[in-house]
Amino acid sequence: MIEDNLNKIKDEYSDIVKFIEKFEVSEEEQISVLKAKLRLFDGTIVWAREVWIKDKIEAYSYYWLRPDETVIIGWDNAPHHKKINSFPHHRHISNSIEASQERSLGEVFGFIRKFLG
Question: Is the separation of the CB atoms in 41 and 19 below 8 Å?
Fold first, then answer.
């Protein structure tokens, strides 16, 4: 299921996703973990990590990086920024933490596509 979802996203965003450079899935009973590195057309990278429990995403982190692997924007739902109004969902931009509406890999790629114009 996770692999199918990743391939669907790659196909849907084929205008910006050049290829999946690295892909790992581990599955134990009802817990699945995805780790993937996707290379974009402009040389930037998206690192994705998702933890699924019983077919529901419980934890995620998506980091969009420059070719030198410095962070452009990072999204995650680690529960450590309680003052953000979208808690626990937030994004890291430069040295700031902001509320985030993007809560899936597809939504992150939608944001990136729109950002790149």
Answer: no
Please tell me whether the overall predicted TM-score, pTM, comes out greater than 0.85 for this model: yes
What is the per-residue pLDDT across 1-45, written as a single tens digit (0 to 9) for each?
A: 788 889 999 999 999 999 999 999 998 889 999 999 999 999 999
- The residues spanned by each domain of the chain are 2-116
Structure tokens at 80: 């450590």
CA 56/CA 54 separation, integer angstroms: 6
Q: How far apart are CA 32 and CA 50, in angstroms?
A: 8
- For residue 24, the one-letter residue type is E
Tell me the backbone φ, ψ of residue 83, rounded to 5 degrees: -85, -10
> Distance between CA 37 and CA 23 in Å, rounded?
7
Spatial contact of 86 and 101, defined as CB atoms under 8 Å apart: yes
Residue 72 near residue 66, CB atoms below 8 Å: yes
Q: 74 forms bridges with which residues in the sheet?
A: 63, 92
